[in-house]
Every structure is written in C-alpha cells, then in structure tokens.
Amino acid sequence: MLNKDGLIIQWGIVSGNQNAATVTFPIPFSSTNYCISANSIDFTNDMFAQTVNYRTTTTCQLYGNYNAATANRMWIAVGY
Q1: Using one digit for the tens of pLDDT, what is the confidence trace for 40-66?
Q2: Which residue has the higher pLDDT, 28 or 52?
C-alpha cells in the first residue's frame, strides 16, 4: 500500500529453509531505512524471533533458528 505522502506499507508470507527466507518487496523502498517485523507461523510453541541478515531497497533476508525443513514467515515492512 502506498499513500499520498509516500509512506509504503507492505506485508506477506514467505517460505524458506530452516534458517533463512528472502522477502522480495512488490514496491521498492527509496532507501534501506525501513522497518520490518516478522515471525514464524508454523510453530505453536514458543515463537522464534526473526532477525534480518541483510536488506536492500527491494529485498531482505529473514533468519530464524528452526528445527524444521521449511518455515513460513509472516512479515510486515513500513518505510518510504
């Protein structure tokens, strides 16, 4: 979603291996100064926090320590 002031809010679900998943943003951000939050949706016990390994204006990589072959992550990113 892009508002008239240039604020961009994007969200989705991405699958990855047990450690990493790459998010590709539908709308590129103007800089890497955006905020992203993510969490696993595959586990019913304690949720493992996600960290961002790298970020560009069009992608970022989410990292989490899982004991599963794949892990689905729900994410939201906000920036300009």
Answers
A1: 776 654 455 678 888 999 999 988 766
A2: 28
Give the C-alpha separation, 80 to 71, whole Å. Answer: 28
| Nearest alpha carbon to residue 20 among 45, 58, 48 | 48
Exposure letters 4-39 (e unless 16+ CB within 10 A, then b): eeeebebeeebebeeeebebebeeebeeeebebebe
Give the pairing of strands 8-17 and 70-79. Answer: antiparallel
Rounded to the nearest 10°, the torsion over CA 50, 41, 11, 54 is 20
Residue type present at position 19: N
Nearest-10 Cα torsion for 32, 64, 12, 69: 140
